Amino acid sequence: MEQQNSTARGPGFLRIAGLGAATALACTALLGAGSSALAAYFARRIITPDRIKTEEDELLAVVRGPEGLEGIFRATPETTVDGVYSFHFNGGAGHARIGAITSYSPLEGTVQRRIEAVYSGDIHHVRWGRWGGATYSDPGGLGLEFQEVTLESDIGAFPAWLVPAPVEPDGGRRSRHAAGAAQQVWAVMVHGRGATRLEGLRALPVAQELGLTSLLISYRNDGEAPIADAGRYGLGSTEWREAEAAIAYALENGATDVVLFGWSMGGAVSLQAADLSRNRHAIRALVLDAPVIDWVDVLAFQARLNKIPAGVGRYGQLMLTHPLGRRLTGLSAPVDLKSMDWVSRAVELRTPALIMHSLDDDFVPPGPAERLADRNPGMVDFVPFHKARHTKEWNVDRERWEVTVRDWLSSQLEERATPGAAH
């Protein structure tokens, strides 16, 4: 799940258009007559995909630098943070990878950065775009072989990228990990709300290093998989079935175990799969980046962020969870938010989980993830990041992200492969 700067309605979450301070005051005055309508609107925005991504990050000029093209961007809280990012433009038809800062002028409000690659579109004639974390166009952008495969769930066929494990000198694709001599571990990567399979590409280098075959999946209503439930998100309560289908595909094709990677809402999807999948015994571990651990906490935060009165926000939550709310939300069935509250259910989580979350995340606050780790330290390791905001932990500090995942996941693989260890 990606975001833009905090003044724009990002593609990943709920910067609701038109809800400023003046609107909030008006809503408070109309709480009696208008609260139901506003609550219904809030609830629908939560579960409705953003089909059109707003492009509100300004590219002022493209110039020639000493090492190639560079872009001069309007300085924002995101464009001025070190790291590697994506810049989508022309309604998503254009995609570039943006690298290091070469100059920054706070007085002029501009920042100049290297343009590392342009995957599609003509960036020379672009004024507006969307800043994000999906820095590659497909696995081929990382120099990896891959193929498009089709998986099946209750919604029908949906696409995924299959990235094989590295080839061994003997021509085999068995895990290169020391513990992998008698096993094949696959990674299933689940993107967040408003994002696509591109989100998981950042995890491929470390997955390859560990010798994992990877499946980067789509799921219902993400723009690639079929539309289901009137085009409404289930916030993880329905999307986990695509993760389950991916797990089944992996097991049918030689995997002995899987690791679920999940970003933002993809974290909620992964937790549901670990809880509900018929193949949950095969889920070796969870690697979660800025995951949604408790939707009630996230929705309350989003209501405050959008200056929605607290009572209206709670009313919107009720509409999502009550059968009578379906007429207003468009859901085919209520969303059980309680079952996705993993702070309250902490002791029920029996799958080892690594959670990486930036402490300044202003879309999915890290508090629930920290509390989950505190309540179940035997299963959950929480690693804080800084300055990454939402789902950009890798972008801000790729080396730390990859070392953290590699070391933690290596220990999980070794522990579970030890003779006599519980499976």
What's a concise summary of this model?
This protein has eleven helices and 14 strands. With 423 residues, it is of the alpha/beta class. 48% of the residues are buried.
Notes on the structure:
GO terms for molecular function: hydrolase activity. It comes from Arthrobacter nanjingensis. Keywords: Hydrolase. Residues 188-356 form the AB hydrolase-1 domain. With 423 residues, the chain is α/β, with parallel strands linked by helices. The chain folds into two domains: 57-132, Elongation Factor Tu (Ef-tu), domain 3; 139-417, 3-Layer(aba) Sandwich (Rossmann fold). The chain is built from eleven helices and 14 strands. The protein starts with 20 loop residues before the first helix and ends in a 6-residue tail after the last helix. Mean pLDDT is 88; it is low at 2-13, 15-33, 176-182 and 418-423.
Summarize the helices and strands and which ones pair or pack.
Elements: H1 21-29, H2 31-47, E1 57-65, E2 68-74, E3 85-89, E4 94-105, E5 110-120, E6 128-132, E7 147-153, E8 156-163, E9 185-190, H3 204-209, E10 213-217, H4 240-252, E11 257-263, H5 265-276, E12 283-289, H6 295-305, H7 310-321, H8 326-329, E13 353-358, H9 367-375, E14 380-385, H10 393-396, H11 398-417
Helix pairs in contact: 1-2, 2-7, 4-5, 6-7
**Spatial order of the strands forming the largest sheet:** 7-8-10-9-11-12-13-14
CATH superfamily of the largest domain: Alpha/Beta hydrolase fold, catalytic domain
Low-confidence stretches: 2-13, 15-33, 176-182, 418-423
CATH class of the largest domain: Alpha Beta
Summarize the amount of helix as a percent range: 25-40%
Span between termini: 32 Å
For this structure, the CATH topology of the largest domain is Rossmann fold
Shape: globular
Write the element-wise H/E pattern from the N-terminal end onward.
HHEEEEEEEEEHEHEHEHHHEHEHH
Overall residue-averaged pLDDT value: 88
Structural class: alpha/beta
Give the count of helical stretches: 11
Number of domain units: 2
For the largest beta-sheet, the strand count, sense and barrel status come to: 8 strands, mixed
